[in-house]
Amino acid sequence: MTVRSPVLDFDVVVAGGGPAGATAAGLLAEHGHSVLIVERESIPRLHVGESLIPAANEVLDRLGMIDQMLASPFPKKYSVQFITESGRESEPFYFDGFESTGLGHTWQVVRSDFDRMLVDNARRLGATVMSQTKLRVPHGQAGSFRELELQASDGPPIRVSNRVFVDATGQSALIGSTLGLKRNDPALKNATVWTHFRGARRDSGRDAGATIILHSRDMKSWFWYIPLPDNIVSVGCTGRLDYMFQRGNSSAEEIFERELQRCESLQTRLATAERVEPYRATKDFSYRCRPGSGDGWVMIGDAYGFIDPVYSSGAFLALKSGEMAADSIHESLITGDVSAKTLGRWQPTYDAGVENFRQLVYAFYDMDFNFGRFLTQFPEHRGGITDILVGNVFKAGLEAIFHDIAIAPSA
Ligand SMILES: Cc1cc2nc3c(=O)[nH]c(=O)nc-3n(C[C@H](O)[C@H](O)[C@H](O)COP(=O)(O)OP(=O)(O)OC[C@H]3O[C@@H](n4cnc5c(N)ncnc54)[C@H](O)[C@@H]3O)c2cc1C
Hints:
The chain has 411 residues and is of the alpha+beta class. The protein has 3 domains: 7-74 and 109-184 and 287-352, FAD/NAD(P)-binding domain; 190-283, D-Amino Acid Oxidase, Chain A, domain 2 (2-Layer Sandwich); 366-407, no CATH class. The protein is built from 14 helices and 21 strands.
C-alpha cells in the first residue's frame, strides 16, 4: 500500500524567506490571498548584504515598517563616500533631496535581524511561514511548479499545491537551476572575503553611518566599510575571482590580510579594532535568469538575477521585485490569468532599472574610468549618478550618463 503524504493548498507558495520572498508574501497576504513562505534555514539566519539604499524606504513604507526601522538600533545611513587608492576622499554623496520618503537617510542593517523583521511582518499581514523546511521540485515535473514537495528537517515530505509559485530562493535560484536558465555575466566574475570588527574608527555626526568604499593599491580590489550597531563595522573585500584566489589554496584570512596591506586608508581605520567574526568568502558572480516567468510561476530577487555588491543594490532590488511581482500576482489571481505574460509584466520596467545599476558597475571596474574626473567634466550628471546610488533607477533619462561615460576621455 502506498502512503500518500497530505496535500496543503495555497494560492501562492513562496520559496525563500529573504527580503524578496517576505515582501511578496506580505503584500499578497495583505490582499487576502492564502500565502505560504517556505524557508530552508532557521529564522533568524546569517546573511551578507548589510547596507540598504534609500529607495528601499519606499517599499518598507508600503510594508508598514518605517516606524519599526526608526525604533531599531540600525545606524542611519545618510551618504556613501569613495576613497581612492591614493587615499583621496570624495565628497560624500548625501541622499537629501533624492530620498522620497523625506527621511533623508536609510539604514545599515544586521541582516539576520532585518530579514526576521520582514518575515514577522509577512506573518502579521497573514502569511503562513514554515522555516527549516526545504522546498523541492518533484522529479519528472519539468516546467510546472503547481505541485511541490516540502521537506522539514524532521518528518515526512509534504506535498503542497499552488496557483502561483514564486521563486525567491536567492542565489540558489531554484527554477533557474532546475530549468538551466542561469547565465553568468563574464565581465563580473568576482569574489568577496568579509568579516566584522569591533572598535574600528567611526566618523562623527551624520557621517557616522555612511558606507565607505575604499580602493586598494592598483585598484585590484575594493573594500566596503559598513557601520553596524554595537560599535561593529562590517568590512569586505571584493576583486576578480582569479585575482583574489590567485594562489589557489589561499584562505579567506590570507586574502583579506594581503589586500588590507595594500589599502592604507583602511589600515588607519582598523588600527584600534578587534576582529569579532570569522573570515567568510563567497563568489559573487553576476548573473541573470531568463525568462523570469512562466505559466504559474515567477522569479524575484537574487533568484531572478544578481549584480555585483559595489552599490549595495541587492536588498533594495529584492524588496522592489517582491513588491512589483506581488502587484502582478494579485491581478493574476483576481482575473484568473496566471500566464507567464501577466505574472512577468513588471519585469521589462524592472530590467531597465537594473540595467542602470549594471552600467554604473561596469564604469566602477573600468580601470580607465575615474568618477571624480568624469564629474568635473560633466557636472550635470552628479544628480543622475546620485539618483542611481540611492536607487531611483526607474527614472527616465539616466541613459545620458552612460552615453557621456562612453565618450569621456580615458586616463
Ligand atoms: C558579497 C556580497 C555583498 C553584498 N552586499 C550587499 C549590500 O551591502 N547591500 C545590499 O543591499 N545587498 C548586498 N548584497 C546582495 C544581497 O545580499 C542580496 O541581493 C539579497 O539578500 C537578495 O535577497 P533575496 O530575498 O533575493 O535572497 P536571499 O536573501 O538570499 O534569500 C533567499 C532565501 O531562500 C532560501 N532558500 C534557498 N533555497 C531554498 C529552498 N529550496 N527551499 C526553501 N528556502 C530556500 C535561503 O535559505 C534564503 O534564506 C551582497 C551580496 C554579496 C554576495
